[in-house]
Each structure stands twice: as C-alpha cells, then as structure tokens.
Design goal:
single chain; about 500 residues; alpha/beta; Alkaline Phosphatase, subunit A; 2 domains; 8-stranded mixed sheet; 14 helices; about 25% helix; about 15% strand
C-alpha cells in the first residue's frame, strides 16, 4: 500500500494538466471511497482530540486516534461559502471570482472536485448544507453531484439527518464521494430544541464550558457556549453513525475520511477573523488501508490541499487550476513537509473588510487594508448574547485588552504573532527589533503571493449591509454598491493558475 501511495503521488504530480479532465489513472477496484465531513462554524479547539475537556466528540476523537490529527491546518477564509468554495475548487478565494465574498458564485469555467471525480467514475453525493453556486446559467449548470440532498428531516434541521441513508443507498458498483456538510454549529441554535438524550447524551452545562479571554465570563456567555457545544456534539454523533454504517458494509478500511470545519465558532473574535480562532481548523484524516503513519502531524497544510490529495489518491487527473498540493506524502510519513506557507483572506462577510494573512513556522502575519474599520465579527455574532455582554462591559469600561480588540478601531496595519508562545494571538510583535527580520520576510512573501495569484485591493469593495452595533439589516436603498469590485476581479484572478509561494 505504501508503494501505491508513493506511486500515485508521483503520478499525480507528473501528469497534472497533461491528461484530459476526468481521465482515470488507476484501476477502479483500487480507488478509495471518500467522505468529507464539514462542520459549520466550529473552531479547531472545540473537539476533544484537540484538548477541549468540555465538548464531547468521542466519534471524531476515535478517528483521530487511528488516523492523522493535523495540528497546523488552516483555512483560506473564515467565512462559510468562500471557505467551502475554496475547498471544493482547490483555489484561494480571490481566485474563484466573485466567490471570494459571502453568498457569491464561483466562476463557471473552474472545475470542482466532485465533478472531476464523477467524470472519472465515482458516484458523488452531497447531503446537508451546500452553500456553493456557479455563474453558469441554469440551462448550462454542470453536474457535480449525482445526488443533492438537503439533509433535513422533521425534528432534525442540522443537515445530517440523511447521511446514513445516503451512505447505505449508494450504488455498490463504483467508488463513492460524499460531501456531508452539517448546519451545526451555525446560529441560531436548534440542537437545544431538538435534543434527543438517548442519542446525544445529556446537554452541556454552562458551568463546564471554556470561556476564552476575549469573551465575558458571565451566565449569558456560558449558556451561549453550552448551546454551541451541544451542536458540536450532535455533529459528532452523525459522523459516528456514518462510520458505523461503513463498518457494517465492510468498506471503512477503504474509505478516506476527512473531518474539518469551514470557519471558527460564530462568536466575537472568531468567525471571519484571520487569527487562529477563526482561521485554524481541526483536520482529521482517516484511511486504514492508505495511511501508514498515524498520529499527530505538525506538517503545515491548507484546505486547498484536500482536493489534490483526494484526486491523486483516486487516480484522477488534478486540474491545472488547483493551487494546492497533495498530502499523500504525509500519509506515508506524518512528519513530511508539503508547504512552507499557508495564506488566508478576510473579505466582505456582512461588513466591508480586506485583510490577508500568512503563516510560516510559528508565526502569523496579518496585513489589514481597511484599518479604519473594526473586526467585530459577522452580523449573527453581533446579535448574540456573548456580544451583548461585551457591549455592556465596553459601555461600563470594564473590558480587558483581549476583549477591547473586538471593537478596536483603527486597527493596526500589520500584526505579527508567535502562535506557539501566544495561542490566542494577543501580543502584537510587529515593529519589535527581535522580530524585525521575520516581519520583513513575511511581508515580502505576502506581497509576492498577492502579486503572483492576481490578488488586489480595489478602491471600492462591498460595503456594510448590516449595522455594526446591532447586527440588523441596513435597507438596500441605503447601501451604495456603485463601482464595487471583488478582490482580484480587476486582474482576472479567476483565470490565474499560479499558486504563489508554497
């Protein structure tokens, strides 16, 4: 098996872009099934296997125990649809066209992972939250999935209600790819109202939750976090239900499973942020017949690496459009190095924003191109009890430095953090003599990446469509979108193939 993995890795690198799209490069019988479990709005450290002692995730923890737990896995956007679109195309958000921003479509000429797999002989299914669209006209829509299922049933609106049936009812004569995407844990919380103690166990107690230093430790915030933890546990339950189904079908060993989330938890200083609380993701890989080196991996990876990994393992051609790299070398040796840099974007998500981040070694550098605006989080977070507690403490002048950052304006243009020494990224090292060379290097790498991938900072980008203090919709008549451009659109970034530094 190890020899096959190494061979397929070489084959994928050698033939990328040389064979017609969708041509199979391996015998169907040797190709793994693939399931991507993608949670909605769950931070990396809210799974038990990543050290959270309060949130219960026994099924995901078990996959990590017998697979690979990536400790340096990063998203390209801490925003729902841009993140998912980036994963499905293997491209950075600004290289997907308008899809760099929330609720906007991927440019129609770009291939999607499930479409390539389908053309190479896979059965493809999507169940749960979709949230990805294309600019193709209705009568020209490509078929990416053989099955598209909303994943909801009476009493379960979490998106995972049909995962087991989709797994059970699939065709048995071909390998399968399933994109299982939950709505858990997106606000507003519905798991509390739909809780089934016989399936999920008892609800989480507010007294047990872990309150980060940038939130207020009060009853309202603790209950908010407890309800969020309930959604995390419900997601875990359905991951486990699918795994048990695969075991009964005797196909678990030949199924490559990834577990991750699209962005950080929907709380202040998390979702939409470039900091780890928003942009770092849990990433579990499980494939008994294909992963030779199990355990914890410190190899730095980006979620744009998932599509090339899956396609190479499947023996399918990796399109030239994909900017990621295969992780199969890490499956053979979990200490293998596949990239030096991981890049992330903060674009419009309810509020005007333009920021870029690069991670290298133990450092995160952030450059903010809209310093006059706060990074208070998306509108659903602004409407949350946790944010209301912060607002009350702000008005009473009782915020600590970490909490003040939620409202900070103007923000620094450059932020630099050692995230090993400072896991919450609270101490900005930018401008300090001891980190001068690191800052200079990462600023140059970020500039080079933006240039090579066609990124840009348009003078006018999408404006606020929600009130920053209340989270309420701003009437459309009060929002001026004249002359708005999305990042990279002026440079036709959706046609750029260059991946930038890796």
């Amino acid at each position: 098996m190890l020899a096959r993995i190494l061979f397929l890795t070489w084959l994928g690198l050698t033939l990328t872009g040389l064979a017609p799209l969708g041509v199979a490069l391996a015998d169907t019988a040797s190709r793994p099934n693939v399931i991507v479990f993608i949670a909605d709005d769950i931070s990396w450290n809210d799974f038990g296997c990543y050290g959270n002692t309060a949130a219960r995730t026994p099924n995901i923890d078990a996959l990590a125990e017998s697979g690979i737990r990536f400790d340096r896995a990063f998203l390209t956007a801490s925003s729902c649809s841009p993140s998912r679109s980036s994963i499905i195309t293997g491209r950075y958000p600004h290289n997907n066209g308008a899809a760099a921003e929330l609720h906007k479509p991927i440019s129609k000429h770009l291939p999607w992972l499930p479409g390539v797999l389908r053309e190479s002989g896979y059965y493809t299914a999507q169940s749960g939250k979709h949230h990805m669209t294309t600019t193709a006209a209705k009568n020209e829509q490509p078929v990416y999935f053989d099955l598209v299922d909303g994943g909801r049933q009476p009493g379960n609106s979490g998106g995972h209600a049909n995962w087991v049936s989709v797994t059970s009812d699939r065709p048995k004569d071909k390998p399968f790819f399933c994109w299982f995407a939950s709505y858990d844990a997106h606000r507003d919380w519905d798991a509390d109202k739909q809780w089934d103690e016989s399936q999920y166990g008892s609800m989480h107690r507010p007294s047990d939750v872990i309150v980060p230093p940038f939130l207020i430790d009060d009853d309202a915030t603790r209950q908010d976090l407890a309800s969020y933890y309930n959604e995390v546990t419900r997601f875990d339950h359905y991951v486990g239900a699918v795994v048990q189904t695969l075991k009964r079908q005797e196909v678990l060993d030949d199924t490559l499973i990834f577990v991750l989330a699209d962005n950080g938890r929907p709380f202040p200083r998390a979702k939409t942020r470039l900091h780890d609380s928003g942009m770092k993701t849990a990433l579990i890989a499980h494939w008994p017949s294909g992963i030779q080196s199990t355990g914890v991996s410190d190899s730095q990876v980006s979620v744009i690496d998932l599509a090339p990994t899956i396609l190479t393992a499947a023996g399918a051609t990796v399109p030239q459009t994909m900017q990621g790299v295969s992780l199969l070398p890490v499956f053979a040796d979990r200490s293998a190095k596949v990239r030096d840099y991981a890049f992330s974007e903060h674009n419009w998500h309810d509020y005007e924003a333009h920021g870029r981040g690069v991670r290298h070694g133990d450092f995160l550098l952030i450059q903010n191109f809209r310093t006059q605006l706060p990074w208070q989080g998306p509108a659903d977070s602004v409407r949350s009890p946790s944010h209301h507690s912060l607002q009350a403490a702000r008005d009473a002048k009782r915020l600590n430095a970490a909490q003040q950052d939620v409202f900070l304006t103007p923000r620094p243009e450059i932020e630099l953090y050692n995230f090993r020494q400072d896991p919450h990224q609270l101490v900005n090292l930018a401008g300090q003599p001891k980190t001068e060379s690191t800052q200079k290097h990462l600023q140059e790498i970020l500039r080079r990446w933006m240039d090579e991938t066609g990124d840009s900072v348009p003078e006018k980008i999408s404006p606020d469509t929600f009130d920053r203090e209340t989270g309420k919709h701003i009437p459309a008549s009060d929002v001026d979108t004249t002359g708005v451009l999305t990042p990279g659109s002026d440079r036709k970034a959706d046609h750029v193939l260059a991946p930038g530094p890796r």
